Amino acid sequence: GYDISSLLKETGNVTLDVGFVNTASCKSAITYIDGDAGILRYRGYPIDQLAEGSTFLEVSYLLIYGELPTTDQLADFTEKIRRHTMLHEDLKDLLQAFPRDAHPMSVLSAAVSALGTFYQDSLSITDKDQVELSTVRLMAKLPTIAAYAHKKSQGQPTLYPDNRLNLVENFLRMTFGFPSEGYDVDPVVAKALDQLFILHADHEQNCSTSTVRLVGSGHAHLFASISAGIHALSGPLHGGANSAVLEMLDSIETQFGGDVDKFVEKVKNKEDGVKLMGFGHRVYKNYDPRAAIVKKSADDVLKKMGVNDPKLEMAMRLEEIALKDDYFVSRKLYPNVDFYTGLIYKAMGFPTEMFTVLFAIGRLPGWIAQWREMMEDPATKIGRPRQLYIGETERAFVPADKR
Ligand code: ACO
């Protein structure tokens, strides 16, 4: 019964843009996306060149500080992070208190939130040294927390970081190793995971990054803002899509006897709101450039690891059908970055619940860079969207006994 155009007239300058489809919330110099052309660049550098030639820590430096580091700058950044990988023992006790079947994304966000209670000497949003310290602490501790969350869910003992290893190797060892035994990191796995982190490192004003900015715009500290971002990422329409893809492939096997065509028909008929998970993107109306890199990597990694997963075949067949089908073509629905990542994570040995946690580790430098950019911009204001009120007009209160 509400006429939106007259509501808009009444409110003067207010525009209605549900889901911010056309509204920019900020200016940013970090990430460039041309969704129609399928282009993604961090600070001007094409994603395929970074994925091929760089490392996750180097890309993190680029995102946060704006330029590729010199050898000395990278060594310094790496060393600072290396020195902060340990968790306070009390924080470990806190993690122990969570139920064993807790989702690791909830544990991750809660632990990051708790960092704000353990590290009160780096909560300032204006003191450059403190912001730097909280940046380093987050970059160093998130992989440790993530590995703890995994170990806890498996009912296995946790490992301390081994700082002779680099960030990704250390994370793999803490995730899959055991305290009593040595653990040899597979270089193929470490390289592939490092590359996946690069691909996830930033994606301009997506749901979780916008959340980090919005929370930070009220001058909440970095730990609080990132903790909120982790929660935003957990949803199946955002970072949770990578685990949803595997669940979908499982259900095609169990409910459709592996018949991909039958499943696609169900999606096209929008039965029970079923979507082709890992397909479609708000910004990309072309092949997601990250998906192209991941698809190749999935093929390589699975081969190199000697894994023969029929789900890879199924995913490829699904993609082939969708890319030819008018439903998907007319809506410009292409595979996004999450379509193939789950298959790689599974081959590496990660359980499905950990997939979105891996996304969070990768996205962390982007969130930090965006938060810092916002805080340094004198034009920043608290984020406060408007609304169009469609509720009751004024009416008189009725006492309980008269209702
Ligand atoms: N499967 C089937 N149909 C789809 C899909 C899909 N994956 N995605 C969109 N559509 C359809 C919609 O039903 C709609 O159809 P209609 O025009 O007949 O109503 C049309 O395509 C447009 O879709 P919108 O929902 O308007 O697109 P929006 O930009 O709002 O959503 C989103 C983008 C959320 C990513 C969506 O494509 C989706 O839900 N995909 C599946 C989940 C997923 O993979 N998310 C990961 C995104 S990438 C990331 O976070 C890293």
Automatic annotation (TrEMBL):
What this protein is called in its record is Citrate synthase
Indicate the segments annotated as coiled coil, or none if absent: none
Return the similarity comment: Belongs to the citrate synthase family.
* GO cellular component labels: cytoplasm
PROSITE patterns for the chain: CITRATE_SYNTHASE (PS00480)
Keywords, sorted A to Z: Transferase, Tricarboxylic acid cycle
Q: Name one Pfam family in it.
A: Citrate_synt
Give the reaction(s) catalysed: oxaloacetate + acetyl-CoA + H2O = citrate + CoA + H(+)
Q: Where is the active site?
A: H281, D338
Q: Which organism is it from?
A: Rudaeicoccus suwonensis
- State the InterPro entries in the record: Citrate_synth-like_lrg_a-sub (IPR016142), Citrate_synth-like_sm_a-sub (IPR016143), Citrate_synthase (IPR002020), Citrate_synthase_AS (IPR019810), Citrate_synthase_bac-typ (IPR024176), Citrate_synthase_sf (IPR036969), Citrate_synthase_typ-I (IPR010953)
Lineage top rank: taxon: Bacteria
Q: Name one GO biological process term.
A: tricarboxylic acid cycle
- One GO MF term, please? citrate synthase activity
